Structures are given as C-alpha cells and as structure tokens.
C-alpha cells in the first residue's frame, strides 16, 4: 500500500496551463495521476479586491514524500504569482489503487 498518499489541489487559468503542469508532473513521476476539472468559477480576494474568474482545478494524486518536489516544480512553471497548492492526506482507499499510486511515483 502507498506510503502517505495525498490528494493535492491546485488551480490554474486555462486548460493549456493545467495540461502542461499535469504532463510535467506525470512525466517526471512526481505524481501518479492528475484529473483536470474544467471551467469552474472562483470568487476570491486578491490584493484588496474581489475577483471572479474561470479556473481549471487539478486533482493531483501523489505521496507526502514527493510534496516538496511537487511544490518546487509547480512554483517554477505555474503562471500565477501565488498558486493554490493544498495537500490532503488520503486516510483510506482501495488497496490496489493505493499500490498503483505508490508504484507510479518515484
């Protein structure tokens, strides 16, 4: 079973950006999988103003052991000055899926 599996949430401004980030993370084997949820509306406060923008949500599956490398890679290639990057520990799941996750991440 995967050691310390995580679900990582990250948003970006376009399908092209989400796909480029996802492909980079998977190709470098930092993550097992990235699901891209298209065209959601985000309402947020930034630099003293309320914004409403269309964003793409990435659901990133990896392990806690790779989170620092993922943070560094996303910080280097993400178009935002301060991208959302939140990790949630996966407490339980199907053993076969968690084994695949672990085996996919190096």
Describe the structure in your own words:
This protein has a 4-stranded antiparallel sheet. 25% of the residues are buried. The mean pLDDT is 95. It is built from 3 helices and 4 strands, in the order βαββαβα. The protein is of the alpha+beta class.
Task: Briefly characterize the structure.
With 106 residues, the protein is an alpha+beta fold. It has helices at 15-27, 67-77, 95-104, and strands spanning 5-12, 33-46, 49-63, 86-89.
Low-pLDDT segments: none
Percent range of helical residues: 25-40%
Radius of gyration: 14 Å
Series of secondary-structure elements, N-terminal to C-terminal: EHEEHEH
**Strand order across the largest sheet:** 2-3-1-4
Determine the strand fraction and express it as a percent band.
35-45%
Q: Which structural category do the helix and sheet elements fall into?
A: alpha+beta
Q: What can be said about the biggest beta sheet?
A: 4 strands, antiparallel
Give the overall shape: elongated
Q: Kindly state the mean pLDDT as a whole number? A: 95
Describe the structure using short key phrases.
106 residues; 39% strand; 3 helices; 4-stranded antiparallel sheet; alpha+beta
SSE blueprint and pairings:
Layout (H helix, E strand, L loop, with lengths): L4 E8 L2 H13 L5 E14 L2 E15 L3 H11 L8 E4 L5 H10 L2
Antiparallel strand pairs: 1-3, 1-4, 2-3
